[in-house]
Every structure is written in C-alpha cells, then in structure tokens.
Amino acid sequence: GDLRPVSPMLSLGRRLGLWIAAGLVWGVIGLSWIGFRPDLTDKCVNVFFLLETAALVVLTGSVAVGSLKLAVPGETQSRSVFRWAIGAFATWMGVVLFRFYTEWTRASGLASTFDFHFVCSLLILGISIVPNMILAKLLARGYTLDTRKAGILAGLASGALGALCMQFVCTHERPLHIVAWHALPVVISSAL
Asked: In a designed cystine with 104, which of 31, 92, 111, 180 is the match (CB 3.0 to 4.6 A)?
C-alpha cells in the first residue's frame, strides 16, 4: 500500500477564497485585454444590470461552494447542491426573462430581436478555462465521491464566472442575446 503521509486539505473557505482570487485575477486580465463596455458607469445604476450581475455573483459563488463541498465525503448531499445550482441559474434566467417581459410591453417586439454575437460565447468559454482548471485541481485534492457531479458544478461555476465578466464587456443586452450567447456557454461549460 501507499504509506506516504496525507497532506491536510484546506478548509472550504480557503479553497473557495483561493478559487475566487485566482478567478478574479484571470477575469481582470481578460477584461483588461478585451476592454470594458463604454457605458459601464451608466449601467451601474440600471436596476436590471445590477440584478443580473447580482444573480451571476450568487450563481458563481454558490455553485463553486457546492462543487468544493462535494470534494469532502459526507459534507453535503449532492441532490441539495444540484437543487441550489438549478435555483441559482433559474434566478439569473428569471431576471433576464423579467427584463424581456418589461421590454416587450414597452417596445412591442423590440425585446425579441435576435442578434448573432458568437464572440460572446467564445469569450465566456475562454475566460472560464483557467478557473475551471483551478477548481478541478482543488477538487482533485479532496476525495470526491461523485466526480461527475462535482465536475459539472465546477464547469457551471467557471462558466458563470465568464458570464459575469461579460456583464462588464458586452453592450448587447437584448434578453435573447443573453440567453443564446451568454447563458448557453455557461451550460456548455458545465458539460466540458
């Protein structure tokens, strides 16, 4: 057998802090390279922008916590972690759909305008790569009983971090654009 000493695993808070710090550094590097949206100061007082950003922060953090909890046997039930992840994702989409409804009633159809911005998807996936690798490394240091679920949550957290960064870059904010070019890459990221 393997008689080497086992190194203690960092606490959940430290692992989460490490991932958030690394994700923020990577996100800031990505944002600096891509550039911030020119109307960012105006958007910082827009209720929908703030709600969508807050929903993405909750989604990113809660799913990362869930993923890291799955690395510790007995720490949490995977079913409750998945319910929380689905709820956080649904909250983000609920905010987007509510904005769709308000824009639809005000602009009679303008909200349903669909645009093609595949570059948003590529940037979200690109930003999510390094945080996903770091989260996978943190998961590998634990004893994950359900690696598939932990990996899905790690991908979802990293994809949500990419979408959160895109909030500060992308000026195309039609609800269908957000669903197609921002939410879909988050779902794809969870499958990678």
From this structure: 111
